[in-house]
Write a structure and sequence with these properties.
Layout: H1 3-10, E1 14-18, H2 23-35, E2 40-44, H3 50-60, E3 65-69, H4 74-82, E4 87-90, H5 95-103, E5 107-112, H6 115-124, E6 129-131, H7 140-146, E7 154-156, H8 165-170, E8 176-178, H9 180-183, H10 191-205
Parallel strand pairs: 1-2, 1-8, 2-3, 4-5, 5-6, 6-7
C-alpha cells in the first residue's frame, strides 16, 4: 500500500504498540488484539527480531495494518518495509527515516512534543505527526497546533486510556496509539484480560 492508502485506513484507528522480549508471546498478544477488534499494530524495534514478527503477522493477518515502531535509522526502516511493514513510526524526528519514506511512498509518523517539532516532523516526512509522550502533553495541543497549521494531523501515543480516548478524538486526534495500557502485565496466561481491555477501549472510543 502507498502512503495515501494507509493514511485513509489509519483515520480514527486505535493502534496497539507492541513491545517485549519474547517473539512467540508477542505474536499471541498481537493475534488476540486483532481478534478483539483492534486491527492496527505497531511492532517496535525494541522487540528482538521485530522484522520477523512483522513478516509473520502480515502473512497470518492479511486484513490488519502492521507497521514498525521505534524506527531510529534508515536501515531499520528498510528492513521493516522489506518484511512487509505498512507504515513506519519513530519516537522522534529522524531525517533519514523521513527521507526514505518520502522517496518510497511509505506512510511515516515521527514524534513531536511542541509546535516547532510538529512542523519539523511534518517537513521531514511525517504524514501524521506522532504526539509523544502523550502522558506529558495536553490534548488541547492538537487544536492549538492546528489553528496556525491546519494541514498537520496528529496521533497521540502514551497516556491515553479508556477514560480519555474519546476526548482525545474529540480534540482532533487523527488516530491514537496505546502501549502499556493494553499490554502491561499481559502474557500467554492472561489473554482474557487483554480481550477485556480491548473491548473496554473500543467501547470508550465510540
Amino acid at each position: 500500500m502507498n502512503k495515501e492508502e494507509v493514511k485513509k485506513l489509519m483515520k480514527g484507528k486505535l493502534i496497539a504498540v507492541i513491545r517485549g522480549n519474547d517473539l512467540e508471546e508477542a505474536k499471541l498478544i498481537c493475534r488476540t488484539i486483532v481478534e478483539s477488534g483492534i486491527t492496527t499494530l505497531e511492532i517496535t524495534f525494541s522487540l528482538p527480531n521485530a522484522e520477523k514478527l512483522i513478516k509473520e503477522l502480515k502473512e497470518e493477518l492479511p486484513n490488519a495494518l502492521i507497521g514498525a515502531g521505534t524506527v531510529l535509522n534508515k536501515e531499520q526502516a528498510e528492513l521493516a518495509v522489506y518484511n512487509g511493514a505498512d507504515f513506519i513510526v519513530s519516537p522522534c524526528i529522524v531525517e533519514e527515516v523521513g527521507s526514505y519514506c518520502k522517496e518510497n511512498d511509505i506512510f511515516c509518523s515521527m514524534g513531536a512534543a511542541t509546535p516547532t517539532e510538529a512542523y519539523n516532523s511534518y517537513l521531514a516526512g511525517s504524514d501524521v505527526v506522532k504526539l509523544f509522550p502523550g502522558d506529558c502533553l495536553s490534548m488541547k495541543m492538537i487544536k492549538g497546533i492546528k489553528a496556525p497549521l491546519p494541514f498537520i494531523e496528529m496521533m497521540p501515543t502514551g497516556g491515553v486510556d479508556d477514560t480519555n480516548v474519546k476526548a482525545w478524538f474529540e480534540s482532533g486526534a487523527y488516530a491514537i496509539g496505546f502501549g502499556g495500557y493494553l499490554t502491561k502485565g499481559i502474557n500467554s496466561s492472561n489473554l482474557d484480560l487483554l480481550k477485556e481491555r480491548c473491548e473496554r477501549l473500543i467501547n470508550s472510543a465510540k
